[in-house]
Amino acid sequence: MVRSAIQLDAAADRAADTLYAPEALVVANARVRLAAPRFAGVGYGGKVIIAAARVTLEGRFAWAMVDYRWFNTERNQAEAGRATLVCEDQLRGWRIVHVHSSQVLPWDR
Questions:
Q1: Which of its termini does the chain have fewer beta carbons within 10 Å around, N or C?
Q2: Across 85-97, average pLDDT
């Protein structure tokens, strides 16, 4: 779910909307995001890879911490980001209820 959320976001694919609860709060670089691109450092097009991930499950909640990289070779762009996602097992299945992402500082890459 986390991988799909980030990859669909980079593709500006509306299917990403189905992964989020209606009340979800998405914050990227300290700003609320209501639509793609939802993740800090991710632009339209290009490709996203997950560099590292850790997931914890506790009852009907799960949270994931991920490091990701976004590349757009056509525009010679690359960005690194970190995100924390909180997911909840709701009546209609797992949904993302909160995301906070930030671009990684150059000395932390």
A1: C
A2: 95
